[in-house]
Please model this.
Amino acid sequence: MDTKSLIIDKATLLFQQKGYKSVGVSEILKACEVTKGALYHHFPNGKEELLIASLHGLNETIMIDVEDIFSKHSSTQEAIQFMIDKLILSLETEGTITGYTFSSIVSEMATVSEPVRKACSLLYENIQSIYRAKLVSDGFTNESASTIAMWMIASIEGAMMLCLTQQSSDPLRTVAQLFPIILKGRTS
Model:
């Protein structure tokens, strides 16, 4: 792995675990075992530029994973259930859901930095478009699919944050139980 990719990977993990403001440049340098010069060589505008690169990397990783999950399942319900089961497994085996959640970054930085807000917004829009397309293929109208896709994102993101704060997978399990109720009979 090249130095720039290493810095992005380690910083992404730190940002997800601790939040942007709680992670200092020195902590990133230590985790990556690189010099300050190496960091600023790849990210001349500093930590915020690194955060944006991290968000773009997350976007790519999450999109590949979500697209893969949704392409392998015949219905939205099956895909969402698989995805939630995967999140629960991650929480229960690793004690965290770092691969998917970036809500803490959004809450910290979206009102402070327009480039960060745009990077976060793009990720949510991309996920919502995958959900919406699957819902349409399940028979939902475009309008219903858009509304439900937004609800799905809000529900899953909120449940992930609750899981992390409660140290329990119960919020994700509850959301998984509600999806069939929401999706049932909502076509047309």
Notes: The mean pLDDT is 88. The CA atoms of residues 10 and 31 lie 7 Å apart.
